[in-house]
């Protein structure tokens, strides 16, 4: 059960509708599928997304980092030696999603090797998660329609409202969505798009609307602004793009910048995500499992991690992004019923099953 | 792989020489061996020590808690669902070593079920630990002799100096030991035996002796005294008996009472110890793996946990207590060579092998 080989396959699938947010937009999934083989023929799979505006990684940089730096550093190590593997990869700075994909593939391989479902290998708290859906930018009316349609079709009743471009319009969108969904769990994400004073204005304008938390309302780099904002707010400020490592999470909490944390498999894999989760559990800091433009493959990682741990499965997790993508490498479609996503009882590893025909069609290296 | 049955066996083995420390003395190991069977016949083993002056638990209370409260709460759960198991046991307050023994036995069972060594299942950072030895109370000269003999016989070069009864005598003991062992790693443990002002006096008297840290020098309950002490000290103050849960660790660090943490398998098992370790790693708080009057069984738990994680294996671990006990249930004797204890390459689970003849001889329930 030692690491023998890693294959890196870039692929591209268009979004149905391009995804818009405060710092950019995405037209295509541009990921690298990795296949990690062990000496006894077990294969773990995962993928690394290229997200230049968050991690600075391209498909090319991911492939180079894995083939030239990371794989040679961990070749021949046992897949279960996750701490040693993390340590051996530590000399490479950055390259978050490349490292996380290796860690995710290793955990998939562990599950397959043991013929166990990963969520049970990790902690087995639950076998399902409550699903949250992200409502992308649009007119306030269309955003409310989006949410109602998701509730109608999937029973989803938790929504992230994307904000951060025009705070006056954002207030209208929040108000409109709450009007249409009086009992839903709502929170917003401004991706650092507001100034601190604007975030404070939004908070006071919508405080009767019972939003659960604000994610990255103002730039985390504006420490004084965030402190001013946090002093005003009764609900947590959640750190996402400012909290992409264990060290980041620790610093942002202690500096009083964030009081809740978004955990994403795509950047911290299983090993570092578990450390972040435990740090937050120890500090009574809430967390939720977020989405990084996930396909069904990434969604399966979030599902298995989130379901495994008590402190992670308490909040709705963002598991719907794959619905926005025109197609998917995963052969069996994931199901959302009555607002929940369940892990099938016969699931092994992360439950990933690649459709080889689709992979051949979407891969960019042939 | 579901929990089917737990057997609780009280047993007693005398110490070669009674163990003396600031708050009491121990003449005998009085533990409860637990055997946890799964539905498919796998058996995980561990033990709970009775330590009234730290946890308030007796052999009887341990047996009652397991048989009447804890086992009925977790019967039929899968052994891998450790988060769910911890949650189901949470309604029982206290009973630290009873709960920890179940968690340890479950992890032993996981390893046996998977035919894997636990240290590799947990993280696989290393397959060995540097060993530290605790020097019990005696005259300064005899304490130095103890240390020299351990170095001679086992190559050990890290020592905990037990202090906390008479601070003037303690200063002499520290001075004598450092004179005999100029290059050893030395630290001391006063078990809350000094007042804060005495601890400050000791610190200044021995600051040239290069001690690594002070463990529980003054009562943790004297918060103001500890703050005064911490202000004076350049080296960490380590929390042990004040840090027996994840919540304790978090509080003691944030209140500025302790700046280093002793992790003990006997009280927090694998699941909660891992959370404590990750909390501390995230906060850059050093930890070491301590001993709770461990037999070879408890020592194996410490060895597998400590070796698995980078942040745990960096410091010497206390793995010699079993040398002070007249006999042991473990069939294969653990070896310390050149100051290290290694996990054999063919180890499965926690590597526990009970000698059934000895168990029959030492058990107290027949």
TrEMBL record, chains A, B:
One of its GO terms (molecular function) is metal ion binding. SUPFAM superfamilies: Enolase C-terminal domain-like, Enolase N-terminal domain-like. Keywords: Isomerase, Metal-binding. GO terms for biological process: peptide metabolic process. The keyword Endoplasmic reticulum does not apply. Gene3D superfamilies: Enolase-like C-terminal domain (3.20.20.120), Enolase-like, N-terminal domain (3.30.390.10). Residues 140-236 form the Mandelate racemase/muconate lactonizing enzyme C-terminal domain. Signal peptide: none annotated. The keyword 4Fe-4S does not apply. Pfam families: MR_MLE_C, MR_MLE_N. Belongs to the mandelate racemase/muconate lactonizing enzyme family. This is Mandelate racemase/muconate lactonizing enzyme C-terminal domain-containing protein.
């Amino acid at each position: 059960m030692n690491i023998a080989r890693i294959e890196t396959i870039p692929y591209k699938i268009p979004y149905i509708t391009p995804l818009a947010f405060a710092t950019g937009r995405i037209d295509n999934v541009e990921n690298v599928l990795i296949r990690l083989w062990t000496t006894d023929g077990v294969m773990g799979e995962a993928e690394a997304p290229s997200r230049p505006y968050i991690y600075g990684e391209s498909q090319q940089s991911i492939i180079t980092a894995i083939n030239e730096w990371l794989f040679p550093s961990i070749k021949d190590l046992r897949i279960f030696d996750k701490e040693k593997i993390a340590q051996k990869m530590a000399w490479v700075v950055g390259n978050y999603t490349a490292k996380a994909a290796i860690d995710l593939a290793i955990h998939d391989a562990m599950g397959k090797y043991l013929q166990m479902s990963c969520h049970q290998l990790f902690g087995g708290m639950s076998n399902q998660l409550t699903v949250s859906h992200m409502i992308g930018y649009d007119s306030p009316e269309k955003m409310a329609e989006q949410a109602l349609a998701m509730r109608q079709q999937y029973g989803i009743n938790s929504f992230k409202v994307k904000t951060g471009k025009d705070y006056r319009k954002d207030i209208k969108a929040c108000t409109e969505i709450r009007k249409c969904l009086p009992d839903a769990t709502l929170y917003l994400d401004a991706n650092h798009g507001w100034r601190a004073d604007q975030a404070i204005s939004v908070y006071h304008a919508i405080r009767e609307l019972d939003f659960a938390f604000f994610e990255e309302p103002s730039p985390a780099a504006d420490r004084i602004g965030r402190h001013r904002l946090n002093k005003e707010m009764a609900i947590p400020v959640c750190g996402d793009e400012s909290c992409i490592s264990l060290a980041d999470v620790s610093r942002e909490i202690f500096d009083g910048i964030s009081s809740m944390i978004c955990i994403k498999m795509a950047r911290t894999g299983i090993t570092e995500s578990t450390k972040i989760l435990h740090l937050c559990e120890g500090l009574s800091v809430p967390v939720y499992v977020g989405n990084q433009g996930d396909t069904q493959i990434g969604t399966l990682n979030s599902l298995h991690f989130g379901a495994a741990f008590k402190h992670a499965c308490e909040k709705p997790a963002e598991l719907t992004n794959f619905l926005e993508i025109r197609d998917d490498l995963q052969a069996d479609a994931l199901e959302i019923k009555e607002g929940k996503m369940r892990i099938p009882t016969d699931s092994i590893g992360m439950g990933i099953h690649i459709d080889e025909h689709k992979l051949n069609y979407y891969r960019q290296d042939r």
